[in-house]
Write a structure and sequence with these properties.
It contains 15 helices and two strands. By secondary structure, it is mainly α. The chain folds into two domains: 106 residues, no CATH class; 233 residues, MetI-like fold (Orthogonal Bundle), CATH 1.10.3720. A two-stranded antiparallel sheet has the order 1-2. Helix 2 packs antiparallel against helix 3.
Length: 408
């Protein structure tokens, strides 16, 4: 059997992870002054070693073997970093709860009567098991299959697949087209989130006023969210068609002009943003309306008596108290903008013109379905998934500090 030669030996990878874990836990112990230093070093080293190998060991450390490209090695170290971030964060939470004598999972104040007693846990698991089994079969197993396919050269109709380690990922490091798709996804998502949330807050504030028929207006403004992105794209296709679109017919009759909404670069991007905003704004209005109704009127009345203007009342009272709703909507709108706009783009512009609406999610479809490259498309989908997860974690870390919960 031929001996495997490594550019970076697995033992080195493990030792690097263990060293980083020990240093990180020692720093946390010095910062908090809680617990034993020796225990922190040992647990940190174990967590670091597990994190460094949890993603690379199942692949046989193939990305560090002799003959792999520099890009493969870079992807390998990225995988080591992701594993370390996961295990070190989980390990630190577990260890510091142990040092403080706290339960790993806090016990609730009350337990429903049906789940009390010796067999409460067994009964709870019996009730939950159908849902758990469905999730495992339809969500988690396909996710594992996606991870497996991302390391293969696999195509539709091909009788065989071939293991190619992390080449599907490493090739994207130098793929300028994919970088452009990612940048476009960020740009369109930013526009969708800002416009959809700003307009939703404005409309919800108007609906919160004591006007006749407010409930009817709320219903009419919220219903677009019940429409799927594909249907929304079809509606805007009928509205914005260059020759037969309703909008251009009105513009032609009124001003004698026709705007090529879907066939020119800036107009197509604007059309996608507007259609996406229309599709998701009802969801935002629903939550902002609910949030505005939880703000006590006496706070606003007291501020008005003290001489605060309408803008000052909004900036100093209303908007800060809406922060839990704003934070939640930022997360959900980010997920919508990156993933759910695919159906709208698929119907409305097909990624055109000249790939001006060719987002990263649309690239996954083109690579996997049209080009039949299943391995590469699954790798692209995993990268997009990790990006959105990273953005969401960042939003939780940064946004939660500015969110005001509690009774008003």
């Amino acid at each position: 059997m031929e001996e495997i030669v490594y550019i970076v030996h697995p033992i080195v990878v493990t030792l690097v992870g263990a060293a980083l874990g020990a240093v990180y836990f020692a720093f946390l112990r010095w910062q908090t002054q809680v617990g034993s230093l020796n225990a922190s070093l040992v647990v940190g080293a174990i967590a670091g070693a597990i994190g460094a190998t949890m993603l690379t060991a199942p692949l046989g450390y193939c990305m560090f073997q002799d003959g792999q490209s520099d890009e493969d090695v870079i992807v390998g170290w990225i995988m080591v970093t992701l594993g370390l971030l996961l295990t070190l964060n989980i390990g630190s939470v577990i260890l510091w709860r142990y040092f403080r004598g706290q339960r790993l999972l806090p016990r609730g104040d009350t337990t429903p009567g049906a789940f009390r007693g010796r067999f409460g846990f067994v009964y709870a698991m019996a009730v939950l098991s159908p849902t758990i089994l469905v999730l495992i079969y339809f969500v988690y197993l396909p996710m594992l299959d996606t991870l497996r396919f991302s390391t293969f050269l696999a195509r539709f109709g091909a009788p065989r697949t071939r293991f190619i380690c992390v080449s599907n990922f490493s090739r994207m490091l130098g793929d300028l087209d994919y970088h452009s798709n990612l940048f476009l996804s960020f740009a369109l998502s930013f526009g969708i989130i800002i416009i959809a949330m700003s307009l939703a807050l404005l409309i919800a504030s108007m609906l919160n006023q004591p006007i006749r028929g407010a409930n009817i207006y709320r219903t009419l403004l919220i219903w677009p969210y019940a429409i799927s992105p594909i249907v929304a794209g079809s509606i805007f296709g009928l509205l914005l068609g260059t020759e037969s679109g309703i909008v251009n017919r009105v513009l032609d009759l009124a001003f004698g002009v026709k705007v090529p909404w879907l066939v020119t670069v800036p107009a197509a991007q604007v059309s996608v943003v507007l259609a996406s905003v229309w599709n998701v704004i009802g969801f935002n209005i629903l939550f902002y309306t609910a949030g505005l109704q939880t703000i006590p009127k006496d706070l606003l009345e007291s501020a008005s008596i003290d001489g605060a203007s309408a803008w000052q009342r909004f900036a100093r009272i209303t908007f800060p108290l809406l922060s839990p709703f704003t934070f939640f909507l930022i997360v959900t709108n980010t997920i919508y903008a990156f993933f759910d706009t695919f159906g709208l783009i698929f119907v409305l512009t097909r990624g055109g013109p000249t790939e001006s609406t060719f987002t990263a999610m649309y690239r996954v479809y083109v690579t996997g379905i049209l080009a039949s490259d299943i391995g590469k498309s699954t790798a692209q989908s995993l990268i997009l998934f990790l990006i959105v997860v990273g953005i969401t974690i960042f939003q939780f870390r940064v946004g939660q500090r500015r969110v005001q919960y509690g009774n008003y």
